[in-house]
Amino acid sequence: MKKRLFIASMLVAFTGFATMPGTVFAADKDGPPDKITKWTFQPAFDSSDAGWGRGLIPWVKAVEEATQGTVIIRVEPAGALTSGAEAFGAAAAGMTDGYAGWATVYGGEMPEGMLAYGLAMGANGPEQAWDAMWGDPKYRIGDLVQEAAHERGLHWIGWTDQGPNSMFTTFPIKKLEDLKGKKMRAGGPQAIFHAAMGGAPVSMDAGDIYTAIKLGTIDGTYWDTGGIADMHFPEVIKYASMPGWNPAQHQETFVNLEKWNELTDWQRKQIEGIFKKMYFETSKMHMDAVDSSIKALKDAGGEVIVMPEEEVQRMREKAMTDVWPKVAEQSKRNAKGVELWKQYFKDHQ
Question: Does the reported pTM lie above 0.70?
Fold first, then answer.
């Protein structure tokens, strides 16, 4: 009898670690290990990006504190070890230990990342996003992203809402038809949205946007609102349109799955335990930056146009009919995630 109980308890110990928020761990009595694990992360951005100081770095510090210094993370800027565009694949291949960015930079190698990034005219803020992705067991859209990450040799361990991703332009936007024919810097889901609204999306590196707007090469850009001051966009744009095409743009953090599995149960439990806490803490940091960026725009003589609710609803309906299906068609999990989001909005009207 004692032998059977011992074997059963060992099976629980080996299989009881968390793979996503909400997972229950087996009883763990060993505490912090003697060995220190050192990871090297390279995100898809450098230290000038809002995601550095208000997303990734606070999460890194929280991990090191939660694991009592037994997990130490060195963060290198994009380009230090590999290009920003290759950073996701580098982490999956084990060339680096982890990555942070936007849906594998808008889908790319893992289409399900677009569910984590946020849908056009989707969640209106961090509370609603968390509820649909992780909080309410009826939806748990985050599980789809985690499954896709595991298939690619990664584990999703960090998330932050960077606030609204909006349209920053040299022309006013008061209704969706105002975007027709306008040349806007837009990538991935932004480009899908802009094209659906009748605009002409333009692909270009972030470092070229300021000059392109100043010279009139493009009419504006899609960008996270909290980051426009960092990019000095208030110097060359005249208008910001709210609530934006994506009211809750997200950034994700992944670790190489083999590296994750090398940790002890206790270390994994500690890191999973800060997922929700750091999501809301860093999301607030981004929202504070949104207020500062809006002030910088107004101080520079710019105008914030808040679209009326009926126009927001028109834009949401068009996004759901013209944009969401393009996200859904990229994978079976995306299709399921989009249907869950539709159900979520239906249930919360």
Answer: yes
Q: Dihedral (C-alpha) 13, 265, 100, 110: value to the nearest 10 degrees?
A: -10
178 token code pair:
């105002």
Beta bridge partners of 306: 242
Q: What's the sign of the alpha-carbon dihedral 39, 43, 46, 48? A: negative
Q: How many CB atoms lie within 10 A of CB 55?
A: 28
User: H/E element holding 340?
Assistant: helix 332-347
Distances from the Cα of 315 to the Cα of 210, 310, 321, angstroms = 27, 9, 10
d(CA 91, CA 97): 5
DSSP 43-73: -SS-TTSHHIIIIIHHHHHHHHHHTTTSEEE
Gap between the Cα atoms of 224 and 247, Å rounded: 9
- What pLDDT sits at residue 20? 57
Q: SS3 of 223, please?
A: strand
| Spatial distance between the Cα atoms of 164 and 86, rounded to a whole number of angstroms | 26
H/E element, 138: none
Q: Could you please report the per-residue DSSP string of 273-289? A: HTHHHHHHHHHHHHHHH
Residues forming beta bridges with residue 131, ordered by sequence position:
none
pLDDT means per 10 residues, the chain with 349 residues, are: 39 41 53 96 92 96 98 97 94 97 77 94 96 98 98 97 96 94 92 94 93 98 92 96 93 97 98 98 94 94 94 92 94 97 94
At the topology level, CATH places domain 37-162+249-288 in D-Maltodextrin-Binding Protein; domain 2 (3.40.190)
Q: Which CATH architecture has domain 165-247+301-347?
A: 3-Layer(aba) Sandwich (3.40)
Residue 159, beta-bridge partner list:
252
Structure tokens at 57: 């770095």
User: Residue ranges per domain, the chain?
Assistant: 37-162+249-288, 165-247+301-347
